Amino acid sequence: MDTHDLVAVSDRRQQQVDRVLKAFFSDSRYRAEKLGAPYSALWQTLERNTSGGKRFRPRMVMAAYESLGGTDVDAAAHVGAAFELLHTALIVHDDVIDRDFVRRGGPNVSGSYRDIATTAGIPLPIAEHRGMSVAIIAGDLALFNAYRLIDRSGADGILRTRLHDILDEAMFVSAAGELYDVDFSIRAEPPTVDEIVEMERLKTAGYSFEGPLQAGAVLAGAAGEAVDALGAFGRNIGIAYQIVDDLLGVFGDENDTGKTTVGDLREGKRTVLLAHAVTHPEWAAVEGLFGSPDLTAADARRIREVLESTGSRRFAEALARDFANRAWEALVNPALPDAARAEFQPVVASVLGRVR
């Protein structure tokens, strides 16, 4: 399949998921209108915050489903949309935890309702509390309705139970990863590399890669060994993806990533880079800068220089490649058809291509 065909398939899958989500939100707004304009407005805000993403998780569901012989694309689109709503719920709640009011360059749910309150003359601390309170409600709605979209997929009996179990496990482990991430931010001693990798597996890889791939495989009626193989692929490529994402958050080209390379350093984000660097004496020279809300571009350059001199950047790049290679090893399992390897080889290549 050439590049043009890959883009066309990806666009088709996204359009199918978008149709499911559009119908879901239309129905939800209609129900909400009966309970008053403010509730309907909340659903409109939640829909806006679900729009604009890459639909990455739904595409993982549909890629697994179709590469394993599934033909009911509407059912797969509903399951994919369920994982997109789970993603929405988690990032809405994550923004509350991080006290962030912006997402994708615009106000998130918290920010939207904070701005409404400040425009009405409410003092900022109270307005921010209102924004975060509404965001918790919105995240709860998205989380619950992820399960409802599984129900609307047409799957029933044991199949529906298995899909519910996969979605439940994805949410369950992500909550554990979020808890560990919160704990790392207040813990006196820095986390180790292994602790960071485990946190990223739980918080992100499980619901972004492993769960969606397994759900698509189960929906397609794949054998248990194939489901496990795709799960292992997703787990390892998800960890690799997150390590690379953290690298780009410090060393990336802002024009390419659309993300500042100062933000993670200013936040004091716990990553593999940090976990490796703190084990070297050179880190002491910049330890006081890391996590400073007043971090300047010059300060950030000093930290990057230390991350280079300690070998932390090279270490993180090598670790990302290692997990990407483990992911490919899972794909060559004979339980998976060639179509699955052809489908996901570009994902491995994409992750490896982002390293340097």
List the helices and strands and how they pair.
Elements: H1 3-33, H2 37-50, H3 56-67, H4 73-98, E1 102-103, E2 106-107, H5 109-119, H6 124-151, H7 157-186, H8 193-219, H9 224-251, H10 254-257, H11 263-267, H12 272-277, H13 297-309, H14 312-331, H15 338-354
Antiparallel strand pairs: 1-2
Protein name: Polyprenyl synthetase family protein
Family: Belongs to the FPP/GGPP synthase family.
Cofactor: Mg(2+)
Question: What keyword list fits this structure?
Answer:
76% helix; 356 residues; two-stranded antiparallel sheet; mainly alpha
Produce a short descriptive summary.
With 356 residues, the protein is an all-alpha fold.
Notes on the structure:
Its cofactor is Mg(2+). Keywords: Magnesium, Metal-binding, Transferase. It holds the Pfam family polyprenyl_synt. There is one protein chain. With 356 residues, the protein is mainly α. It has a domain at 223-356: Orthogonal Bundle (Farnesyl Diphosphate Synthase), CATH 1.10.600.10. Helix content is 76%, strand content 1%. It has 15 helices and 2 strands. The chain has helices at residues 3-33, 37-50, 56-67, 73-98, 109-119, 124-151, 157-186, 193-219, 224-251, 254-257, 263-267, 272-277, 297-309, 312-331, 338-354; strands spanning 102-103, 106-107. A two-stranded antiparallel ribbon has the order 1-2. Helix 4 (73-98) packs parallel to helix 7 and helix 14 packs antiparallel against helix 15. The longest helix has 31 residues, at 3-33. It is globular, with a radius of gyration of 21 Å.
